[in-house]
Amino acid sequence: MSEWLDKLRVALGDRRYAYQTTFKGPTAQVVLKDLARFCRAHESTFHADPRAHAMAEGRREVWLRIQSHLNLTTDELWELYSGMPKGD
What we know:
The protein is an all-alpha fold and 88 residues long. It has one domain (2-82). 74% of the residues lie in helices and 0% in strands. The chain has helices at residues 2-22, 26-38, 50-71, 74-82.
């Protein structure tokens, strides 16, 4: 089990590196700015129509995933996605 968890942590670190490589540089900043607007990164996703609200929440979830991979350490991502502390 420990070997399997170690492989998952390595894969998570590799994925984090891929996100950071993809979203690095001036062109990536243009894309991130557009995604922030489209995903309602800095505003409420509330909508009276439950379907529209669910769609906006889905977009925001994508934004939060990207931001997590850009701003959190591999250990922090591990805790977030696995529900297990770093030492487990």
